[in-house]
Amino acid sequence: MTLGIISAMSEELELLLTDMKLENKITKANMTFHQGKLWGKDVVAVVSGIGKVNAAVCAQILISEYKADSIINVGVAGGIGKNIYPGDVVVATDLVQHDMDTTVFGDAYGQVPRLDTFAFKCDDNLVRVALEACKEISEINTFSGRIVSGDQFISSLEKIQWFEKEFKAISCEMEGASIAHVCYLNDVPCVVIRSISDNANNGAHMDYEKFIPLGVRNSTTILKTMINKL
Ligand code: ADE
């Protein structure tokens, strides 16, 4: 089994990389693929860069060239709603691209036109194991539900209220749905695990800078516990 692990930014992957027994390192499409053993498993870990295109290219390379049988996307995200705070962890059940808009043709916001699914579902087993890991780490508050992704850093109450109303989303970020989309097209199981760095409202960019380290610590802790169970 080869597990592909994608983070958008180097800060999100660096903690994990310190635990990795590196066997090979190759740069492709401006991304460095770290192949080796992580917590007893065969893993390819990579920083994709920010946004949906980078993440999609990265996921496809993991699938086509590294034959990844599962993909996990980890990193930070904006929390949506009153009860979700920096440091909390979200396990996605499914994901939607909030900036996909062909509503003029009668599609719902987020629908990829002419595709036979609206949301990109995470793998039931990977979600179950991730939530089992969350349960074990009782000091980290965890949620599961829909994450929305788009090529926008969200810092607006109006926008997150729209995400809640339109998509029933609990979190937003910039890559997960495109990774889940690529996995859907290739029939490869995936899960997205994100830790909250900000509440995607007015002060989001300041909270984001401040809480990235806490977020990365928490998502890496959950990921380690999860990978030990796979
Ligand atoms: N990742 C972390 N916080 C985010 C936000 N507010 N919007 C988009 N992506 C994020």
TrEMBL record:
GO terms for biological process: L-methionine salvage from methylthioadenosine; L-methionine salvage from S-adenosylmethionine; nucleoside catabolic process. It comes from the Bacteria. Keywords: Amino-acid biosynthesis, Glycosidase, Hydrolase, Methionine biosynthesis. Pathway: Amino-acid biosynthesis; L-methionine biosynthesis via salvage pathway; S-methyl-5-thio-alpha-D-ribose 1-phosphate from S-methyl-5'-thioadenosine (hydrolase route): step 1/2. GO terms for cellular component: cytosol. Residues 2-227 form the Nucleoside phosphorylase domain. Its EC number is 3.2.2.9. GO terms for molecular function: adenosylhomocysteine nucleosidase activity; methylthioadenosine nucleosidase activity. The keyword Amino-acid biosynthesis applies. The keyword Hydrolase applies. InterPro entries: MTA_SAH_Nsdase (IPR010049), Nucleoside_phosphorylase_d (IPR000845), Nucleoside_phosphorylase_sf (IPR035994). This is adenosylhomocysteine nucleosidase. It comes from Clostridium gasigenes.
